[in-house]
Fold this sequence. Notes:
Helix content: under 10%
Amino acid sequence: MEIHSLPDGEPQSNAALPISFDRKFRPWRYRVSHSELKLRSVDPVSVPDVVEVSFYGVVGMKLKTVYRSLVLDLAEPAQAEEMLRFSDVEGTHSSRVHCLVLKSDNGDGWVACLSYSIWSHPRDADDSAPRHRDSVLILRR
């Protein structure tokens, strides 16, 4: 994966969906007040980094408690329609919503949100800090 820098010095990669991770993920945090969901890799200590998938402006979701591996992809049109209907998103608002499927060998889930990002953080990064200086942006939409 090639990494580029934005004008503010923040790294940006050329990653695109679908994107897959051969790691175990769990829902890590959900903030109702911010409509924000985070999934985090929970690999053994031998793995030097933690991958965090953040969804912002979450309007609907269906989650597993554990994803043994994870593929994040755009929903097929019929799936997206079902997600939007479930989330009570109608009309012109639906064009702003990203309908994403969370595929895994142990079952699938989905998230409908306004934006999302995927970061790699050093394992020792402070969980309360928004971004560690050695973190790497994998994908943001």
